[in-house]
Structure formats: C-alpha cells, structure tokens
Amino acid sequence: MLVGIGVTLISLWYGQNHGLMPIAASAQASQIDGLFNTMMTLSIGLFILVHGVIVVAVIKYRRREGDNTDGPAWHDNFPLEILWTALPAVIILGIGVYSFEIYNSMGGLDPMGNHDHGTMQSHSKMRGSAIAGTLSDTPQKAPQIQPEKQIALGVGAAPENEEKPADLVVNVMGLQYAWIFSYPESGVSSGELHMPLNGDVQLNLAAQDVLHAFWMPEFRLKQDAIPGRGSELRFIPNKVGEYRIVCAELCGAYHGAMKAVAFVHTPEDFDSWLKEQQIASTQNLEQAVAVNPDKLSDGEFLAPYVREIKINAKTLEQLHPTHH
Amino acid sequence: MTQAQFQETANLEARGTAPADRHWRDYFTFNTDHKVIGIQYLVTTFCFYLIGGVMATIVRTELATPDSDVVAPELYNSLFTVHATVMIFLWIVPAGAGFANFLIPLMIGAKDMAFPRLNALAFWIIPVAGVLLLSSFLVGAPQAGWTSYPPLSLVTAQMGEEIWILSVLLLGTSSILGAVNFAVTIFTMRVPSMSLNEMPLFCWAMIATSALTLVATPVLAAALILLSFDLLAGTAFFNPTGNGDPVVYQHLFWFYSHPAVYIMIMPFFGVISEVLPVHSRKPIFGYLAIAYSSLAISFLGLIVWAHHMFTSGTPGWLRMFFMITTMIIAVPTGIKIFSWLATIWGGKLRLVSAMLFGMGFISTFLLGGITGIMVASVPFDIHVHDTYFIVAHLHYVLFGGSVFGIYAAFYHWFPKMTGRMLNEFWGRVHFVLTYVGFTVTFLPMHALGMQGMPRRVAMYDPKFTTINVICTVGAYMLAVSTIPFIVNVIWSWRYGPKAGDNPWQALSLEWMTTSPPPIENFEGIPVLATGPYDYGMEKIQNTGERLRLKLRENAIASASGQKRGIPIAEAQASTFFGGTATLVEPESEINVDSPADESQDGN
Amino acid sequence: MQQIPAIDPEKTALNYHHSAEIEAHGEEHPDHRMLGVLVFLGSEGMIFMGMFAAYLIYRAMAPMWPPEGTPARELLLPGINTVILIASSFVIHNADAAIKKNDATGMRNWLLVTIAMGVVFLCGQVYEYTHLEFGLTTNLYASCFYVLTAFHGLHVTFGVVLMAGVVWRSRAEGHYSSEHHFGIEATEIYWHFVDVIWIVLFVLLYII
Ligand code: HEA
Ligand code: HEA
Ligand code: CUA
Ligand SMILES: [Cu+2]
Question: Can you give the pTM of this predicted structure?
C-alpha cells in the first residue's frame, strides 16, 4: 500500500518534471506535452513496478548455498492473468482515446479537408521555375497526380477554424539541402520563415527532388515533403522568438545541414519585415530562374541562399556535384 | 515403482550413447546436421555482429563532435546504412534461425530438421550475401538508410544500392527457406507423445516467427524487385517524375519490416521462456497464455505497419487506425512480461549469466516497449519521428531485447552445444559491462531526440555535444564489453570444465541426451514423462540428484539389455494439472551421496 | 493422490521404438515434403500479392487507368493463351492420375502435353511482347504490365523445367510408381499455383 502510494507519487512527480521537451511555442505543442507527460507518468509507474519485482526477486529469492530443491510449482492463476491482461488494455484504451482527442483538436483529421486552397496550383507553378532537375535524368515528362485524387496529408485546421481560410499561407519547397519559403500573397520568397504572433499559419509543403521532412521541434510538428504530392501543416504560433526548422528525413549526404530558421514576430514587426523583403526577394528569384541549375554544382546553386539558410560556407564548399 | 521414480528413466530412455565428436573442418562444409548448421549460423552471424559493431563505433566516433570531421558525410550515410543492414539481416534474424536450428529438433525429439539439405543451403546463402553486401564498399556503399526510401535510393550510390538489394533478396530467401523448415519440422516431427501444447515455448515462438517470415518477407522481395527495375531499367514505380509513388514503396517495405521486428524479437521471447524457469526452478507461469500471445503478436504485427509512416503520405484517419492497432500489441506483450515476472517470483533464482541476461532482457525490453507505445501515439510521434528518440527505441528493443536474448541463449545452451561450461565470473563481468554500456549509450538518446536532434545526420547542432559524447563513451564501453565474452567462449570451448548432459537440471528434451548430442540426437525416440517446465512438481523433486542416480541405474539396466517403457498417459495426467507438490520421500539407496537437504519441502 | 488412468498400450515406449525403426529408413517423409511445398508456395504467392497490391494502389490513385495514351490492349491472343494455360492444369492432373494407377507411360505423355502447352503459352507471351506498342518505360501501366507478366513468365518457365525434369527421371523404369510420385504431385501443385496466379493477373491487367 505504502509502496503503491510512493510509486504513484514518484511517477506523478517525474512525469511532470522530466524537463525533456524543448519549449512549446504553440498551443498544440503544450497539448502534446500534456499527452507526453501523461504517458511518462504511466510509464514510470510501470517501470518501477517491473524493476521492483525483479530487484526484490533477486534479493529475496536468490538460491541459497546448498539448496538444490525446486521452487513452488505455481503455474497459473486465472484472476491474476485476467488482471494483467485487462489493465494494460484499459490503459491503452485511455492513451488511445486521449491521443485521438489531441490529434483531432490539432487538426490532424482535416488537412486539406473539403476546402481547396489552391494548394496544388501554386506547387506546380513552383515546379515550373527552373530549379527542377536535381532528380534523375529520366526523360519522362512529369504530369502531376491530379489534385482531386489527392489524399489529404499532414495537420490541418483545428476543428474550430475548419471553415476559415488561414491568415497566412506560405509555400514551402524542400530541396537538397535547403528550404525555400514563398509567400504567394505578397510575392516574397525567402530562406527564412516569418510568421505573425497568434496568426493562423498554413504551410503548403512540397519537395523538389527527394523526400524531406519539415520539422519544427518547438512546435512539435513534422510532415514529410513528398515529391509529386502536396502536404500541409497548420498551426498558431503563440510565443515570439526564433525557432529551428530541421529536415528530418534522410535526403542525402548533407541532410544534417539542411536547416532553416523560423521567426515569430509581433504583427507589426511581421508587416515591416514583409515590406522590407518584397524588393529583395524578387531579385533572388530572378537570379535563381535565370541560371540553369542543372549546370551548377549544389554549392553554386545554393549560394544565393547562404545568408538565409545559414549553412556555413565550409559545408557549402564540401557539397560537390557528384552526390547523385 | 512409484510415480516419482520412472520420470527421468523415461526421459532418458533414448539418451544417445556417445557425444558427437566433430572435427572443426566439418563446420566449413555443406554439412546437413542441424547441430552443425546451428553452430555455423551462430558463429557466422556473430562475426557479422562484430563488423556491424565496428561500423557503429565509427558512427559514434563521428558523432562525438558536431562537425562532420571523421568520415565524409557520404561515407557516414553508408556506414549507418550498412550497420543497420548487417545488424538486422546478418545478425539478429539469422542468429534466431541459428538457435532454432540447433534447438528445435532436440526439443521435439527429432533426429534432424525436415529438410536437411535445404537447411544447409539456407545457411550458406548467408555468408555469400554478407560478403556481397560488404563488397559494396568497393564501389560506393548504399547511402539511403536501411529503409532505402526512393527517390533518394534511386539517385545516390546506385551501384551500392543495387548490391544492397541483391544481398537483401538473398537473405530474405534464406530466411524463407529456414522458416519453411522450422514450420514443417515443428508440425510434423514431434515425438508422438508431444502435443502442440506440450512443446517447449521456444517452439511456439518459432511457429509464430516462421508464420510471419513466410507471410511478410516475400512482400519485401516484391518491393525490392520493383525498386530494382526503377534503378536499372528506368521504370517509375516509385519515381514521382514518371508518375510513380514513393509512398507505395514505404507501404510495401514496412509491410515486411514491421513484422520483421517481431521476427527479430519473438525467438528471444521463446528463449526467455526457456531460460527463466530453469534457473528459477519453477514452472513457467501461464504456459498457454505465453504460447498464444505469440500468435496474437504475429497477427497484430501484420496490421500495424503504417506506424512508421505517421508523418509520411498517410491520411489522418489511417494514422488513427494504425495507432490503435499498434497500441493493442502492448496487451499480448504485457502478458508475456508479467508471466515471466510471475515465473521468477518466489523461485530459487540461480543467478548464472544466462539468468542475468534473461532478467536484463526484461528490464531493457520493457523500456523499449514503453517508448514503442509512446511513439505509437500519433501526436507524440509527429514530434519524435526520425529523431534520436526513435534510435533509442529501436536499440532498446533490438539490443536490449534481441541481443540480450541472444546472450542469454548463448550462456544457457553453450554447455549443450560444446559439452563445456563457460566461465561464470567472466560471464558476469560481461553482463555488467553490457548492461551499463548499453544504458550509457542509448538512454540519453531519448533526450536528444525530444530536444530536437534528427537521426541520420553527420553534423548536428553544437548544443547537443555533451549528450552525444556520453553516448559515444557508452558505445566504447559496449565495444569493450564484447571482449570478455569472446575470450570466454574461445577459451571455454577448448579448456572449459566438462558440462555433462544436464548441468542446469533442466527438463526439456534437449538436456536428455549427451552434450554435445550425438549425430542423430537420440537413440530411438525419446518418451515424454514430464512436461518441459514441471519444476517443483511432485514427481521431480530434486531433479538433479535423481537424474544423476537414474543415469547410473540406466547404464546398468541397459547393460543387462533391458528397456524400460513408460506409460505416458499416466505421466500426462499428473503433469499438467495434477501434482499437489507433496514431498516424495526419496528411497534410501538414492540417498547415498546426495546432500542432506534432499527431504526439504519445495514449498 | 490422483487417480491414474488406464495405460494406453498404443502409447507405451516400446511402441515408439518400434515405429521409430520403420521411420528411420525413409530419408525424408513424403508428407513433410508436401507440407513444405504448400507452405513455400503460400509464401511465394505473397510476392505476387505484394505486386498486385502495388498495382491496385496505382490504379486507384490515377485519374485514368490505363493512363491516357496507352495503346489499346489486344485481347484475343492473351485470351487464347489463358485458355491454354487453364486447360494445361487439367492435363497435368491426368498425369498425376495416371501414375497413381502405375501407368508411367501415360504419365509421361500427359506431362509432355503439358510441357508443350506451357511452351506455347510462353511463345505467345514473347509474341505479344514484340508486338505491343508500348515499352517497359512508357508509363506506369506499361511497367506494371511487363514486370508482372515477366515475373509470372519466369514461374511458367520454371514449371516447364520441373516437368522436363520429371520426364527425364521417369526414363528409369519404376522411378515413379503409385507409391512414389512426390515429384509429380509437387510439380502438379506448382503448376496449378502458376495457373491461379495467371488468372488473377489476367483479370487485373487485361479485364478491369
Ligand atoms: C525488436 C524490434 C522491435 C520491437 C519488439 C518493437 C516493438 C514496438 N515498436 Fe518499434 N521499432 C523498431 C523495432 C522494434 N519495435 C525499429 C527497428 C524501429 C525503427 C525503424 C526505422 O525507422 O529505422 C521501430 C520504430 C517504431 C515506430 C515508428 C517510430 C517512428 O519512426 O516514428 C513505432 C510507432 O508506433 C514503434 C512502435 C512499437 C511498439 C508499439 C512496439 C510494441 O511491440 C512494444 C510492446 C511492449 C510493451 C508495451 C512492453 C511490455 C508491456 C507491458 C509491461 C504491459 C503494460 C504496458 C502498457 C500498458 C503500456 N516502433
Ligand atoms: C540489432 C540491431 C542493432 C544493434 C545490435 C546495434 C548496435 C549499435 N548501434 Fe545501431 N542501428 C540499428 C540497429 C542496431 N544497432 C538500426 C536498425 C539503425 C537505423 C539505421 C538507419 O537509420 O538506417 C541503427 C542506427 C544507429 C545509430 C544512428 C545513426 C544515425 O541515425 O545517424 C547509432 C548512433 O549512435 C547507432 C549506434 C549503435 C551502437 C553504438 C551499437 C553498439 O551496441 C554496437 C556494439 C558492438 C560493438 C562495438 C562490436 C564490438 C567490436 C569490437 C570488439 C571490435 C572493436 C572495434 C572498435 C572499437 C572500432 N546505431
Ligand atoms: Cu532534406 Cu534531410
Ligand atoms: Cu514497427
């Protein structure tokens, strides 16, 4: 009994105070942390229970010197077995339902739901620009899988926002080894992601060459960017700051260097940033379109983005064109 | 004759006369003796383990610093790709098959496997495929991870990738041939008195494993054949530029590779079910529950594959479906864990190395299983997918589960395989080093992943340096930990003390013949008198002592040309459900040289 | 103390030794081998299942199937081919029936007919390949078509080789008899397997 209370207390305490998660920069992130803390609490309890049994058994039931007899012949106990079948089942059910709730309230069940934001169109426009060609030289034409046949992927709008369009839509293109963000409404294109505080942000993910995965640890969000398929992440940042964007899907030798930065600004700061960028980014795009990337090494190709994507110059030098 | 008396006589009825005397050269031939093949498997796969381990050590050395400075990033990717492929396809899977080969015929009282030549063939594919895989380093080893997701696998290190495909296809074939053999052997070659529900649990585990292998492995073959066409012939099954779909590959791949993780763990669930009762001197707790939960795991294992694709091309409702099916696996697995705990509870634990690894298995696998349930939860997995949290999970189940299980099995059956005992002291040193090294290497990785370090990166954010250094130190400890084991095995194989037939006083059939067993295992067909786990039951109090005496008695009897038969129905009736565990007074002449505690009640 | 049931004489050790001696002679037991063949074929079938599944996904995902611009498929030749293959399953069954009556010559003749039918099927397949208007890499449907039929064709070829092997071995008088004809039975089962796979394949690739 006392042991039970002790175990419960320890589990509860550690389950809430493990300090394992980075800060949470959106409401969803805190929800997920809540889920994790619950699982952690249950896990610690289970961990202590099982290890307690092992340790006690080792101490109490170790064979004494000279005792060559067998132990008792217990070999089943129906009620006990029912108990340890039913209990995990109940716990699992609990965790399952809880996870489902959270996933639903995050918007996991409604990415690209019944409403079409013109996602696919903007993707194919991106594709048209000359950055293609990193993949194989297969001479096949690349017609898109039709949008209406597309299965919805990613995390969409939270149920309460389902019918509303997002405040800010950003098209995100992953390519070896950078993320490029373009803001279709303002025509800005950048190697950084800027978002207004408490804005309902929708990222439309696409990939240029191979699979990438767009991960923002502080937002607890991740979604693969799949060539030939669109996917989406929608969330509401609620803390001003500078956050990491990491590529989480193996995409080649410099996968580890494929990073970007996300900024959450106050709405005023965000607007001034947007204005500032409008001129600069159009230049950037022209530059990218003007050259034929097939003829460039990755290093040369990425050079215009160096400042934004923060790959250090040395890494960039090491990129050589023979990686595929 | 009292009930107690005839038990061991019966099991000993078919004891082989002389231990097999194998020449070392036999182990390098196309030998069809399942015991030779079993040992061939185990030695070969252990060599591959060392090779995979050296690669892991280089990976960890690279990761000791945030920059990519020890090996080129391309080579880094090749290293972990081949590390994983070697560990999975050339170490854990075939090591399970190795034990199955050695043990199944012995445990069920057969002379050999159903298809001995096929068996030898299945083995010899392995070194060939292994060398083929390693040879890819000459032309640029595959760099796309052991999952080989297209389109990346189609555009990087194409030569190496094709070699990887061929090698994995060969290994898959080998494991299918092995599984056909195990399934047929277990179903048709048991001694007539052994019903399915009286088999040792290892055999049950192998039924479940073989079923999974037979159903799932061919699908991997399908995926790899299609991938090969994309790679070599320019088709576009998985290539988006030709309208193909990379996500289809992921489905096919995981349809095999998720069941594969149970193919890798279930043989060792079986091992643990053998090791714990023997060294706890208690019957296994909940025999039927353990046996059938293996089947449940097999079945469930087939319908959860997309939990590796929660952030990939999987729509939301499908993610929910696979989340639930995945989590349900905790129930049958929990049944096993709790039954094992109940098995050791109240026993008389003999803390030999095999037992330590057995309990270590429960301890580490539990943690791996718990993190498995966590990542099954979609919202959490979205955060930690493809991070070091997953690396931690997979090593906890694969190393903490499968490798600990392999070690437990090694220590337990080494005397049977070689006729010699391993050194206990160095066994314990090995255990402690492994357990500590393992924890230091892999426990901190959970934190790394949650904090934001993705997997498969050669360069990482400098703020993760400290934890990575700890992991690297742990990896060196693990490398060192293999040394006492290797030395112990080599030394004991030649000079270890003789083991005798049954050093652990175990009851399953493999212990009823000589060590190592003679060419056809048993003379005639052994007769079951006890179940495999009847420790502490009335008839077999003080098994060890009695066995020794019966041996002597048997020798005299057979010298005078007598054969003793045993009414099995009688034995059965009192084995499984009967047995009030009252003391059987040993006959006086048996007492001659047994310790005084003979008459102590077994509780 | 428990009541000890009556001893079943069938289950005494002596009996086991007795039966042991009988079994010890046969190197491999027919029933084992047949079970082995069945289990293996089940597993082999899963390769096809994997490919069929992939094919069905492509089909379901594509806006139009076969994709626009795929030349129309000729049905006559494959139809005849299908009939031949299905018929050959009945023919090979006659071979099995013949050997069960110890009629080795009949068995051989029936097998030769089956081989001929298999070869005709393969020739038809090759003819079709050379006269199709699309190539392996034309589009996804074409790739699926060639890979699936070729992989099946490989199985047909192997079946023909198996039957040829049986015919070859049956030269020796009494190699197969009504008691010993595992090779023939296994070949037959394999051939049926190839046949069933073809039917599914045919329906998937040509009909729907
Ligand atoms: C031996 C191998 C093995 C085993 C046994 C398992 C067992 C499990 N695994 Fe694991 N897994 C891997 C090997 C294995 N795994 C590998 C190699 C990968 C990575 C592949 C790659 O991407 O490279 C992986 C990845 C992986 C993922 C994908 C993560 C990702 O990439 O995002 C998931 C997600 O659901 C998962 C879940 C599980 C679950 C639920 C179990 C369950 O079977 C665990 C069940 C066990 C227990 C739960 C403990 C005992 C139970 C009790 C004591 C009862 C009470 C418990 C509760 C109430 C919780 N695993
Ligand atoms: C059974 C499976 C298994 C086993 C046993 C291991 C064992 C080990 N693994 Fe591995 N690992 C995998 C399966 C396994 N791994 C898989 C499936 C992946 C995923 C790959 C992917 O992403 O595609 C992976 C990935 C993986 C990574 C992540 C790489 C990355 O994502 O970038 C790391 C990093 O630390 C790692 C480390 C180790 C270490 C230190 C060991 C140690 O336990 C090894 C200890 C053994 C030895 C060291 C051998 C002893 C050697 C000697 C005695 C000789 C002495 C030699 C020297 C010191 C050089 N493994
Ligand atoms: Cu892009 Cu990893
Ligand atoms: Cu899995």
Answer: 0.86
B567 Cα to chain C: minimum distance (Å):
5
| HEC string for B455-509 | CCCCCCCHHHHHHHHHHHHHHHHHHHHHHHHHHHHHHHHHHCCECCCCCCCCCCH
Write out chain C residues lying below 8 Å of B568, CB-based.
8, 11-13
C-alpha of residue A48 to centroid of ligand 1, in Å: 20
Tokens of A63: 């064979």
Q: How far apart are CA B298 and CA B267, in angstroms?
A: 12
- Report the distance separating Cα B77 and Cα B69, nearest Å: 14
Q: DSSP secondary-structure letter at B147? A: T
As a whole number of angstroms, the distance between CA B538 and CA C125 comes to 70
Residues of B in contact with C44 (CB under 8 A): 218
| Tens-digit pLDDT string for chain A (324 aa) | 777 788 787 877 777 777 788 888 888 888 899 999 999 999 999 999 999 999 999 998 888 877 777 777 777 788 888 898 999 999 999 999 999 999 988 888 876 554 444 343 333 333 333 333 333 333 333 344 444 445 568 888 777 777 778 888 999 999 888 899 988 888 888 888 999 998 889 999 999 889 999 999 999 999 999 988 888 898 899 889 899 999 999 998 899 989 999 999 998 888 888 888 776 656 655 555 544 444 445 555 555 444 444 444 444 444 443 343
Ligand 3 contacts CB of residue A209 (under 6 A)? no
HSE-up (13 A, CA, CB side) for residue C156: 30
Provide CB contacts within 8 A for C58, sequence distance 6+: B244, B245, B248, C65, C140, C141, C144
Q: Which ligand is nearest to the CA of B406?
A: 2
Q: What are phi and psi of A225, to 5 degrees?
A: -100, 120
DSSP for residue B199? S
